[in-house]
Predict the 3D structure of the following.
Amino acid sequence: MEQTLTVNYEGVPAYNIMLEPDFSKLSEAVVNLDMKNRKMMIITDSNVGTYYCDAVRTSLSRIAKVVECITIPSGEGSKNLDSVSLCYEHLIKSGFDRNDLLIALGGGVVGDLTGFVAATYLRGIRFIQVPTSLLAMVDSSIGGKTGVDFKAYKNMVGAFHQPKLVYMNLSTLLSLPEPEYYSGMGEIIKHGLIKDKAYYEWLKEKTKEIEARSFEALREMVYRSCVIKKEVVERDPKEQGERALLNFGHTIGHSVEKLKELSLLHGQCVCIGMAAASFLSYQRGLLTDQEYQDILNTMQLFHQPVSVDGLSAEDIYEVTKSDKKMDSDQIRFILLNKVGQAFIDPTVQKSEMLCAIQSILNEV
């Protein structure tokens, strides 16, 4: 299987996605981008930095003028404008210019934050993604969407800014705690549901290998998900159409995430949202009962929730109305025509939404 994918932006090759077993090729990949003898800043979090910051710094020190590091507290709570301000101050004091390089070392929070800092510092500085979580590898590190949360509203401040490289050291997945690892399966299952039924079936067949984190299974799974994400963002880089399909499960999932005050992981909330969207697809006669139940069972097979406690349907619905995917006060909801084929539906009514939300609520 290939180790490298090339992502095109507006028809021109923009950056490579490298799938590697370690960090041994990182410095060579950066040199190939004509970034030798530049200042480099690693932005990481307090968990990931403990494991991998020294290794990345050592690798890049061979080719950089200087390598510095900013560490933010781990968790979604750090994905805010205060952290952006901290990064700006560090970069200014260290004299970074727009030809220098930022390195996002971590999961989706670090990747989104670093990308936004890169997009806005000096009106744009170069950066690379070095994702260390499964969710970041298959989703947030690809496509150039960057952003931070604003007062618990997810990703409300952001920009499109393409990385120069996405370098995936697949061995970092071995150090992920089980909840973090399985949280990434939410986006992976989503890829199969919206674009590739054969991939969805493959995931079920390879459950044991995926649970054991077999290197070959991880490489094929990450590769196949990256292909799906890459092809979608190439056709729709600014989310004007098809790219919205990647939001399957996110409208309700983001509402749950906010109302639960980030006590659930992003991938868990996406699965809860996908359960609701699948129910709505079933109610419309697009999925059979067997297909709907199979989707729920598959998410549970990978230890993901399909329901939530302690929330009301009305509260969840009200929060969906602040979703950034709204279009003229109408939610662009993502439904399944069938397994492996999603579509954008702007006609979903409040009554349908409430019914779908009710299907994911555990009765007290």
About this structure: The mean pLDDT is 95. The longest strand covers residues 12-20. Residues 333 and 345 are 5 Å apart (CA to CA). The chain has 14 helices and 13 strands.
